[in-house]
Write a structure and sequence with these properties.
Elements lengths: L16 E8 L3 E4 L2 E5 L2 E6 L2 E8 L6 E7 L4 E8 L6
């Protein structure tokens, strides 16, 4: 660029969001089919945007919810109760 032309700067990447998840009983936490670990998951850094949150455990009905994470925001999903599968 010439000295009189402004230089364009790349847009900064959006700040990650923070996600905390807990369930009773404990379960494996997945975000968009990627394992985050077993509950409780505390302050996991994840990309902002819309995601599918799942908590699964053998013998229990899986929990699934679409969530929207804003850049730099913190979301806590702490009230999940997994229900036993019917025999």
């Amino acid at each position: 660029p010439s000295p009189t032309e402004p230089r364009s700067r790349p847009a900064p990447a959006p700040a990650p969001a923070t996600l905390s998840v807990n369930a009773t009983p404990w379960g494996a936490v997945y975000l968009d089919d990627q394992l985050l670990g077993n509950t409780p998951v505390v302050s996991a850094q994840v990309a902002a945007g819309t995601h599918v949150l799942r908590v699964v455990r053998d013998g229990f009905v899986p929990f699934e919810r679409e969530i929207r994470l804003e850049s730099g925001a913190a979301l806590r999903v702490l009230d999940i109760v997994l229900k036993p599968l019917e025999p």
